[in-house]
Amino acid sequence: MLEIKNLHVKLQDEDREILKGLSLTVPKGEVHAIMGPNGSGKSTLAYVLAGRDGYEVTDGDILWNGESILDMEPDERAAKGVFLAFQYPMEIPGVAGLTFLRTALNSVRKKRGETELTTPAFLKLAKEKGAKLNIDIEMLKRPVNVGFSGGEKKRSEILQMGLLEPTLCVLDETDSGLDIDALRIVSEGVNALRSPDRAFLVITHYQRLLNYIVPDKVHVLADGRIQKTGGKELALELEKSGYAEYTNKAA
Amino acid sequence: MNVAVMKTKAEQAISESFEAAAAKLPGSAAVKERRAQAIGTFGGLGLPHRRIEEWKYTDLRANLKEVLPAAVEDKTPLTIGELIVALGPLAHVDAHRIVFVNGHHRADLSDIADAQGLAISTVGKALQSASEEAVANLASTPAGGDAVEALNTAFMTDGAIVDVAKGASVAKPLLIVFVRAGSEANAVTVRNLITVGEGASATIVEASVVLPGAVRDAHFNALAEVSVGKGATLNHVLSAVDEGKSLHLSNCEVTLAADATYRGFQFSSSLGFARHGANILFDGEGGKLDLSGAYLARHSEHVDNTLVVDHAVPRCESRELFKGVLDGHGRGVFQGKVIVRPDAQKTDGKQMSQALMLSEDAEFDSKPELEIYADDVVCGHGTTSAELDSDLLFYCRSRGIPEKEARALMIESFIGEALDKVEHEGLREALASYAMQWLGRSPRG
């Protein structure tokens, strides 16, 4: 279970607070969506969960399975099962996708006390998981994300997720830059990973993604706090009325 | 006027070293005469220093304190097994091989039996022969007034002479291997002569390697004279891997005939104090140059890559990409001069030099120079220096990769772009393995 308690976050070199007492609980097996206007703190929340530098938690805590992750390095969090699918996946010229995936997978396996995969075993697994996302081995021989289309980059994120088998999946604006076909493939990839052992936090600006990845709960994030929580119908409501109500409240 | 009083101790010692070695250096009377001329040329020039523009950042006079005796002969025992250890990742490349230990040819370690399309002989033998052609070819100092090249002519002991037959397409690379072994601190001086016949293509590697446990203080001076014939292609890889204490001076003089292609790659890892010079002359229209390099330096190591690309004729294309990784007090120098002569219209030249700085004490000096005298040309250059990208580092770490490994992966990523220029897969992987060893990573299986 993910428990975010009264989380206050500011940028390290600025005084302005971005998250102002955010509280949220996502039990295992559930998919929660976070929706909110631009600048509400959605991406900050995603980065703070994954442990990116540059943010300062001034108050509150984040517990994953009862354990605070705030003092953990990003790679420790990954080993504990935290995975962030980036809004803008990074390009790594000069490093083949397969090398990157294998290094990542064996790093987390090692930390989780599992044996490292041999090259043939890894290749078999990568082929298998890639096929479901329309990613062939030739694509994985290319440098990570270099020259990939928006859709290819997001599919490659979901492949990473599938290989690393995280238990807490945070998807940051995964729908941005996707056409309908890519959206379907990516969503199918995500849905295939849904399981009673896994919690999902799906961050999005638009309701569209939630037609494909149907959430158990929807939270509205505005002005650094959860302003409202509801069922999946809340997303449809927001699509009609927009965020004005919440931003006004905030102002 | 007595010139000698102007000399530094080292310059004086070099002249004395030549006197001591002269009788033992190989060569006919004509060669000996050329050697004496060369040491005279050197005497006039002295060791290059920072007040000479081309040596501004690489003050050889200040850094060459101790002159080591010339390696006029070698009796170091070296087995095939030791050679393989010294070669490291390069040993896995399926290649023809000619081996020199401490600057002297070792037929027993070489393997050139079935090198079809290649005529291979040695400089040592050519110097001993009385052939005037050999003397003219070998004992000249190509660029004239270069002190390091003059020293090469004065002291050279051996090296490879390779002729690629007209029209031959040689699939297997040829490794010209220079091994340092034994416990004596010597100055090794070698010369290579490469001629690629019309329409031929070949891959030739000059690899400088060290047998683990060998003396770490050593001087190495190599000069390659390369001529690529009409429509021919040469892939030329220069690789030097050392242990941070040696002095490496290398020069490469390349002439390209019409429609010839030269793909050069200069790799160096942990050389103590190094200067790699490359002078490329386009001598016929339609020539193509792709010259790249990757260098790794840490502690107080110093690596200088200096190029002069001379577009003397129209319609030639040149590309240069050099990438350096600098840690500790490591210092990288890049000087890239591109000359476009008045007649060299339709020249297309691009140059890029980049350094990745891993420490605040590292230094990178980059000096691109374009001298353009023609008006219908496309030429550009760029240079960058940067630290590791913290966003990229976070991306890797968020995938579970520990910081140290993530950094290594990103450094690999940085130089990988340069290494990709090496077309031969096995060679590319061998160089990547050297780089990974430098990074303290085991090569991927």
Gist of the model:
The complex is a heterodimer of chains A (251) and B (445). Chain A contains 10 helices and 12 strands. Chain A is of the alpha/beta class.
How many domains of chain B? The number is 2
* Share of residues in helices of chain A: 25-40%
- What fraction of the residues of chain B are assigned to beta strands by DSSP? 35-45%
Main sheet of chain B: which strands, in order across? 2-1-5-7-9-11-13-15-17-19
Number of separate strands of chain B: 19
Strands of the widest sheet of chain A, in order across it, are 6-9-10-3-11-12
CATH homologous superfamily (4th level) name of chain A: P-loop containing nucleotide triphosphate hydrolases
Structural class computed from helices and strand pairing of chain A: alpha/beta
Tell me, rounded to a whole number, the average pLDDT of chain B.
93
Helix-strand string of chain B: HHHHEEEHHHEEEEEEEEEEEEEEEEHHH
**If classified by CATH, what would the architecture of chain A be?**
3-Layer(aba) Sandwich
| Envelope shape of chain A | globular
Overall morphology of chain B: globular
Please give the domain count of chain A: 1
Q: Using the CA coordinates, give the radius of gyration of chain A.
A: 18 Å
First-to-last CA distance of chain A: 32 Å
Q: How many runs of DSSP E, i.e. beta strands of chain A?
A: 12
**Element pattern of chain A in H and E:** EEEHEEHEEHHHEHEHEHEEHH
